[in-house]
Backbone:
């Protein structure tokens, strides 16, 4: 019997992987990019996530959660390398 994959999980993974690839490319191609830069973007994402007073909808909530998770992951990975 085939397992059913929820569309929410598929969307989350797709966004997470896309953000990870983009952040890694940015780090490789932009020598001026720092952990502090990414932490600044992450703080902005936290504010945007908390400012959802009109409701984004489920797809945008998933996108925001995956994007935040990707930034947190890359920042933690980068700090661990130092």
Residues:
């Amino acid at each position: 019997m085939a397992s059913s994959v929820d569309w929410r999980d598929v969307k989350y993974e797709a966004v997470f992987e896309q953000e990870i690839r983009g952040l890694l490319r940015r780090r490789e191609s932009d020598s001026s990019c720092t952990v502090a830069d990414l932490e600044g973007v992450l703080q902005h994402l936290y504010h945007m996530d908390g400012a959802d007073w009109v409701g984004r909808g489920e797809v945008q909530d998933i996108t925001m959660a995956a994007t935040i998770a990707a930034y947190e992951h890359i920042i933690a990975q980068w700090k661990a390398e130092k």
Observations:
- DSSP finds three helices and no strands in the chain.
- The radius of gyration is 15 Å.
- The mean pLDDT is 92.
